[in-house]
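Please predict the structure of the following assembly.
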Amino acid sequence: MKKILAFIFAITLGVMIILSLSNNELFTDFGDTNHYDGISSGYITSEVGGDEEPALVPVNIVTGILVDYRGFDTLGEVTVLFVSSIGVALLLGVASPKRINLNFKPNFMLSVGSRALFGVMFLTGIYIVLHAKTSPGGSFPGGAMIASSILILYLSNDTFRTDVSKFKLGKSLAASGFVLVGLIGLLFTGEFLANFHPFIMDTILVLIAIDVAGGIVGIIDNFLTEERV
Amino acid sequence: MSEFLASLEFINYIEMVVSVLLVVLAIFTLTMKSLIKSVLFLSSLSMLSVVSFVLLKAPDVAITEAVIGSGLVTTLFVFTLLYVHQKERDVS
């Protein structure tokens, strides 16, 4: 009875959503929307062929908005990741860590295959970060890909642990380097995080990637270690 | 109905197959008795949603979904399940 009621409720909700969205002039068909009329026209015009110099304009508009216009919001996101990583370390961190014994021995295929896959994933992550201005992706997925390549190593060997202190150092340096880059913009042009040289955006992309990778690797290591007894 | 079918292109058929498979995989994810099978279906669900994101012309979202949805989340779930099994074995 409960299941039937839930099914009817879900169907009714779906029909209501479809009815309210179809033939609604606010929700046009896919591909027909003219984004140029909306609020994004301001971003697009000054981003692509606008009043900025061409060298400062990234081809990938998602990166352009994330790092240039919404740079301050991105700083907030980086701070959120930093603080959550510190919180996990505070809750789960121990004085003398060792790997949790999972009673899981990786076989030959898994350990060798993971080690082969590690290099490919690591290089792809670096590629995505460095080409964030021109190709899809960006520093958040690139950093997450670097972190998952480290996670693959954790899966391939049941005694493996990375040197987490280096990742933690990189994470902290990246988070403060982001603020430093913003202060450089404030110093030279009078605006925080001002994009006045192509080097600024490259630095910010690399710093975000280091922060994301360091944060995720730190969280994973905290999940997979316990107190040595 | 026949006019509607005639107006469809090849890419529309791919989109239809992907959407139906997404719903089927979501139902499998929810109804599987074994947790590890559920996690594997969740992983394949996010793999397939990568395809649908590419079809919807959102490559940035597709890359993020591929890395986080089917990479990190699946591995974390697998590690958690291994740990839970270990704890259960210790207790019993």
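Residues 2-91 of chain B form one domain. Chain B has four helices and no strands.
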